[in-house]
Hints:
By secondary structure, the chain is of the alpha+beta class. It is built from five helices and five strands.
Amino acid sequence: MTSISTKLNAVNTILSVVGEPPINSLTGDAATNSDAVLAQNILDEISREVQSQGWHFNTVHDVPMAPDTSGTILIGNTVVRLDSNDTKYDLVLRGTTLYDRKNRTSTFTDSIKCTVVYLLDFTELPEPAKRLITIRSARVFQDRLVGAQEHHAFTLRDEQMALFSMREFEMDTADPSIFDNDNVYRIINRPSVYTRVS
């Protein structure tokens, strides 16, 4: 029986694409191994990129965002994206705070319910996400370190297969419907432009 993938497994897979020996730990000697450090940095970069797209496993709906005593809504460093279905606001992230483009302010008086996309630790990700991130990271690592197309251990096709697997996993776990779309939500809930004539 195999155990779940760890960040160490992923880094060793990335190192293997250029023939580097595996490391035993992400700390200690690995901290001075330039290839291992580069592999970890790329893994973190690609993990952020993939997770920022927003998947069922890292998206939470109706999260209350409350302002502090100065009216500022501070956003934690694990939030990579958010939005609100409330048409009173047009929310964007600006650094570590929430900004309302519609009203041109970063000061709020009420709590706002938002759909939030979180950046999870690698160990918290489902296996299809780990595989996609690892394969894409290995390809990017090789491109940056070696740069030779003919030496690809993982090809674009491998990455596409991992992405298909990830999307299939998403469909199986998210149980999506047409009503999950924000645009459909807004259309269904907008006020009617028609008035009844008696």
